[in-house]
Design brief:
- The radius of gyration is 33 Å and the shape is elongated.
- Helix 13 crosses helix 15.
- It folds into 3 domains: 150 residues, no CATH class; 150 residues, no CATH class; 129 residues, no CATH class.
- A hairpin with a 2-residue loop joins strand 1 and strand 2.
- By secondary structure, it is mainly alpha-helical.
- Helix content is 61%, strand content 1%.
- The termini are far apart.
- Pfam families: ARM_FBXO47.
- InterPro entries: ARM_FBXO47 (IPR056622), F-box_dom (IPR001810), FBXO47 (IPR038946).
């Protein structure tokens, strides 16, 4: 039997010859509560058994027919409606099976939207073995074509995208919970048919949930994790155990979750705004289905650097930790630090862009993103504390986000060690300025926003500019002075030493104008406070002469002019 696969040059869809009717979605899901966290068992409590999700009848074709409201024992030869005349909507099921197998999947999806009867016929086809055998053959043909993801033909011929559109069309009138069950059932059966890989199911999930609400996606993500029960068990193990205790399971979780939910390119700088928002939305859903204390560990598993050994690839939890800088390996040089930190923070930046767009999830405020970043650092503490280089470079990569929140957190007067944190914040400003100068030569452009945010916070905190505002400005100048003094004192008669001193001088010079702006703001405010006092003093020294109670009229004044 020859199957027709749609290509760009193929004939029009069969439904171009019919008037399609798209039905409204059911409102059942609006009356039900949003799904809870992914297995509250991610807490440090014993994992309860999950009988509903075993590889048993829940994923059989009989269960799928029940969900799709299809007769459990269909007859291939009998007409669906014996009292109606034979036609397109009333033919033997064996004929429908042949037609749907020959047609491309997109035409089958469109046919399911023509009428209730055609939708019922397509549902019956999806709940048979013919559908899964057809998907297997389509998948093999797709692999043999060797399409690249950036090719126009990729999306047109991808069987997973077509299958996702089919699932979406045949479940359009069902509740979100039922759609999730149908999706899980089809994916489990299809994964077994294709050999157990999760590759491609992420594209299917994205197609099904396109234009869905955030709450609806959260329900689907729980179903998608259960496509591979081993992935779910591995996820629970790696989150409740220590960092690096299950090396193989950590890589399984990283690979499985990336294939399911983070299928796009993860370089935020190379994405379109819409792709960044979608990336942040899926990451948000994934993180929020895990309790907060495990979010940092899950984030590092997904985006942290990896290394290879004789046993295979593993997540390197100690890469950013402190060590003797004199014996640092070539693998840990500063360009690699920037490369891996940029990859690590792509998710953080995507969450911020998504939150600022206000189009999906508004949960991730700047403060919550910063706290999540602190949990990422905390997840690595078993291997050691993050080095000063890693911390300062991470803040330099996201100055308007992480660095801004870092300054406001350090400059909180309610801290018992407020002065010490203020000194550390001033020194961190110098370190961040060094990195930004090396990368762009214009650090003031990137530091203007976080520093204005910090100084405004200090002015509002004290109610004036003579306290913490002035002190922090002086500490920054002092930190720059001490840094230059230390470089000169330790300088040797080498080109490297002279380059470091010249770099420091140029970096400080590039910040002079911005720093003077804060100083001028403080001076102008002080002058503004002194002006009323000067006016009061002048009023006492030069009393105002009382005006004439009977001023001349305008005409009289003109007459007296000689």
């Amino acid at each position: 039997m020859t199957r027709k696969r749609k290509t760009i040059e193929s004939t029009p869809l069969i439904t171009d010859f019919f008037s399609t009717v798209k039905r409204e979605r059911s409102q059942i899901e609006t009356k039900q509560a949003v799904s809870q966290k992914l297995d509250e068992s991610l807490e440090d409590t014993p994992i309860p058994p999950q009988p509903d999700y075993d590889c048993g009848p829940a994923f059989s074709l009989e269960a799928l027919r029940t969900l799709l409201q299809v007769p459990l024992k269909p007859s291939l030869n009998a007409l669906p409606d014996e009292n109606a005349p034979v036609g397109l909507e009333n033919m033997p099921k064996s004929v429908y099976s042949y037609i749907f197998t020959v047609l491309d999947m997109r035409s089958v999806s469109a046919l399911s939207l023509v009428s209730t009867k055609m939708s019922s016929r397509v549902r019956g086809y999806v709940s048979t073995y013919d559908f899964y055998r057809r998907m297997q053959l389509d998948h093999l043909d797709f692999l043999n074509e060797s399409f690249r993801p950036d090719d126009d033909e990729f999306l047109e011929n991808d069987p997973f995208i077509a299958c996702g559109a089919l699932i979406k069309s045949i479940t359009i009138t069902l509740s979100t919970e039922t759609r999730a069950k149908v999706f899980l059932n089809i994916c489990r059966n299809l994964r077994n048919q294709l050999g157990g890989s999760l590759q491609g199911f992420g594209r299917m999930l994205e197609t099904v949930t396109e234009n869905w609400k955030f709450e609806e996606r959260r329900i689907m993500i729980k179903a998608a994790i259960l496509i591979d029960l081993d992935l779910r068990r591995a996820l629970i193990k790696v989150l409740t155990a220590g960092a690096g205790h299950f090396v193989g399971l950590e890589m399984k979780v990283r690979s499985g979750l990336t294939q399911l939910f983070l299928t796009k390119d993860q370089d935020v700088n190379e994405m379109t705004p819409k792709e960044v928002i979608d990336f942040g939305a899926w990451l948000s859903i994934l993180l929020r289905n895990v309790v907060e204390k495990h979010q940092g560990r899950l984030y590092y598993i997904l985006f942290g650097p990896t290394r290879s050994s004789k046993k295979g690839e593993f997540v390197d939890w100690s890469y950013f930790c402190e060590e003797d800088r004199t014996n640092i390996s070539q693998f840990k040089n500063e360009p690699n630090y920037k490369k891996f930190l940029t990859a690590l923070l792509n998710g953080v930046r995507a969450l911020r862009v998504m939150n600022n767009s206000k189009s999906t999830d508004n949960h991730w405020t700047g403060r919550k993103i910063y706290h999540m970043f602190l949990r990422v650092i905390e997840a690595c503490e078993e291997k050691g504390n993050w080095s000063e280089l890693a911390s300062s470079m991470a803040l330099s990569i996201d100055p308007s986000g992480l660095f801004s929140e870092y300054l406001v957190t350090c400059l909180d007067a309610r801290r018992s060690d407020y002065t010490r944190y203020m000194v550390e914040a001033a020194e961190m400003v110098c370190l961040v300025r060094i990195h930004l100068y090396r990368w762009s030569s214009t650090p003031a452009t990137f530091l203007a926003e976080p520093l204005h945010h910090a100084f405004d916070h200090l002015a509002q905190q004290d109610g004036h500019y003579d306290g913490s505002y002035k002190q922090f400005l002086e500490l920054i100048w002092r930190a720059q002075k001490l840094r230059l003094k230390g470089l000169v004192k330790s300088a040797k008669n080498t080109i490297q030493s002279s380059d470091l001193i010249r770099e420091e001088l140029d970096g400080q010079l590039s910040m002079t104008r911005l720093m003077c702006e804060f100083g001028n703001t403080m001076i102008l405010h002080q002058q503004g406070l002194q002006l009323p006092q000067v006016l009061d003093a002048n009023r006492d020294n030069f009393p105002i002469i009382d005006a004439d109670p009977h001023p001349l009229e305008e005409d009289e004044q003109l007459d007296e002019i000689p």
